Amino acid sequence: MDGIREMGLRNVASQCSISESDDYDLSKLLDKPKLNIKREKSFDERSLSELSIGLSRGGLEVYETMYSPGGRSGFGTPASSARNSFEPHPMVAEAWDALRRSLVSFRGQPVGTVAAQDHSEEALNYDQVFVRDFVPSALAFLMNGEPDIVKNFLLKTLHLQGWEKRIDRFKLGEGVMPASFKVLHDPIRQTDSVVADFGESAIGRVAPVDSGFWWIILLRAYTKSTGDLSLAETPDCQKGMRLILSLCLSEGFDTFPTLLCADGCSMIDRRMGIYGYPIEIQSLFFMALRCALTLLKHDTEGKEFVERITKRLHALSYHMRSYFWLDFQQLNDIYRYKTEEYSHTAVNKFNVIPDSIPEWVFDFMPNRGGYFIGNVSPARMDFRWFALGNLVAILCSLATPEQSMAIMDLLESRWEELVGEMPQKICYPAIESHDWRITTGCDPKNTRWSYHNGGSWPVLLWLLTAACIKTGRPQIARRAIDLAESRLLKDSWPEYYDGKNGRYIGKQARKFQTWSIAGYLVAKMLLEDPSHVGMISLEEDKQMKPLIKRSSSWTC
Ligand code: GLC
């Protein structure tokens, strides 16, 4: 069955809305004249207060941003470069060509992009459309005024969500979104069919927890960019969102509002010691909840979710900002922690033993700057830096404005370690020797400073650029893009680089990796037209500020 045709989209009356407060006032950040373009009242103009969930807009000034729907340029001509007053980098045209070559069609309609087009290596599943990998491709198409492929992708994956999913004799949750899918063309019968992977074929049988979150985030990006509410409002999309939310908002034995996950549940899809409450998932969870809040209708079913989301966001932001945040002051406090404290008066709530703080973090921590650490659970703080989780935390305002600035300060002062010669490190530092053996299970692909273990991933450039724009520090992005431009094309768009400084093309890196290509394009388009950042950024919600002050370096 073809989800796209059978879905029967209807144009229902607009009932869901996007908060005005998630419109971003870039003019303030970038010191440019305010963008004040009048538009049709649609998606963005409806305030959160209309949703009657008790969140006030807190007197936020709202300025229009310049999202313009399709029709800006002909197919094959990037609108961004057509609009340029300066010559685009020659890499941009090459990147568009490569991105278009990666397109996958289903019954004549483009529905996604393959992960990589490297014919010199065994394809494994790199010839599939990965949900997480498609996100930068989708943003590139949206920014270029080509939303149809994004819509097709959202509907195709939504259709796949409806499949019955099993691993051996175990039935997976209804809301689970696939990690990837593949279109099979039968040239004789002239038919197309789809196979999907929900973790049952993936190496290690890892669960794609991030897929559902990226799906919701992309649905908002599509809606925000096109102003077309009708897709998000279809009963199918509303149901798809509710099913994803049911998976992560269900009650259980949890004592924390964070989401408990197995190892390898996200971009790092191999054993890397991220089990528990990994920052990447918590940031995506937070962002997806905030996006869902703006997309859910206020019918009987939707309302119940809106209430649950609001409560969870409140608890989650408090927990993350209080316990995952690390800066010089906080590190010093942990270093002096007492242990074995009983009752709610405990300062060292998770009974973290100061001796477990790794040596490297004392030198690494600058006086100015901070970040969300990798993981927090009983007697465990994973002090590693993970780029994706921190950058997404900035974009969705899980980080307070002060924390966002501190993350950017850290990036600047630890540039060599976190960015090096190729933006940027997926995590820092690498795990080595005995730690590598017990943490990865002796994974030869994840040896120190390679792949997920401290490798450098060009795809992260778009997230870095978006975070730079949101925090008003585009010069950092420019520096990173310059680095990428010095090598990416010449090296045929590798998936990742190896080495402490990211100087070497990754040992097993695929070439023509689509998200390296699309990530570069998105970064370029964001810098050229910073108003695009509104698609993937949410303004701070004043209601979510923690009530108490835990550290002197950030205000509550
Ligand atoms: C690798 C990456 C994963 C990505 C996939 C396809 O498995 O770890 O994040 O989605 O390749 O590119």
UniProtKB/TrEMBL annotation:
<comment type="function">
    <text>Invertase that cleaves sucrose into glucose and fructose.</text>
</comment>
<dbReference type="GO" id="GO:0004575">
    <property type="term" value="F:sucrose alpha-glucosidase activity"/>
</dbReference>
<protein>
    <recommendedName>
        <fullName>Alkaline/neutral invertase</fullName>
        <ecNumber>3.2.1.26</ecNumber>
    </recommendedName>
</protein>
<dbReference type="InterPro" id="IPR008928">
    <property type="entry name" value="6-hairpin_glycosidase_sf"/>
</dbReference>
<dbReference type="Pfam" id="PF12899">
    <property type="entry name" value="Glyco_hydro_100"/>
</dbReference>
<dbReference type="GO" id="GO:0005987">
    <property type="term" value="P:sucrose catabolic process"/>
</dbReference>
<keyword id="KW-0119">Carbohydrate metabolism</keyword>
<keyword id="KW-0378">Hydrolase</keyword>
<dbReference type="InterPro" id="IPR024746">
    <property type="entry name" value="Glyco_hydro_100"/>
</dbReference>
<comment type="similarity">
    <text>Belongs to the glycosyl hydrolase 100 family.</text>
</comment>
<dbReference type="InterPro" id="IPR012341">
    <property type="entry name" value="6hp_glycosidase-like_sf"/>
</dbReference>
<keyword id="KW-0326">Glycosidase</keyword>
<dbReference type="GO" id="GO:0033926">
    <property type="term" value="F:endo-alpha-N-acetylgalactosaminidase activity"/>
</dbReference>
